[in-house]
Amino acid sequence: MRRLDSSLPRTGQDHTLSPYEPELGDVPSNDLSEADLDGVNQTGTTTIGITTADGVVIATDMRASLGGRFVSNKDVQKVEQIHPTAALTMVGSVGGAQSYIRSLRAEVNLYEARRGEDISIDALATLAGNFARGGPFFAIHPILGGVDNEGHHVYSIDTAGGVMKDDYTITGSGMTVAYGVLERQYEEGLSNEEAKRVAASGVKAAVERDTGSGNGVYLAEVTEEGVDIQGHKDFDEVL
What is the maximum alpha-carbon separation in the chain? Predict the structure, then answer.
């Protein structure tokens, strides 16, 4: 005859847990090997976010590669609108970044439907960090830029879910080159037009040295009126 565990009620369930707390499942693990990465579309990437007097400017290159060695696409839009006044970049695996953006958009819509108000950019950054830390999104390191009643915001979100706010930030494989340009050219109070030239200069410098970055620049301009994203194959169009 099986003996019941005397430490639990006769139902055999642990009723010390609150019935009002959510049941947490396991997050799908990411067990890609180094060999698997050779066949994964990766953005390599240089992405730049700058706060301005007018709002926020985000710049990215256009290249996707396989394993960092073969260019698989020359016209990848690595910045997407995720909110009426916010945009997010893609860095890392294309599939992971696309899934991350879709999930974040859905959660923002749910948040705003439940509360009947727009999500603040600070809350959006926290949500983006939580998703990066807890979700099955492989190798992402996005930049979030947005405008709300509190001001103009740029956040870097690392793969462990860390959220860091700054006047400007850079992520991706070309960041070390691009940072040198921005350290020299960035000034507080830039207009969006001035910031677009600075950001494009940073991406162009990275393209010259980083094999994961190339083929032009996408520029996203974020203001209180919305998000405008334009692609440029020729850097001379914006410099």
Answer: 83
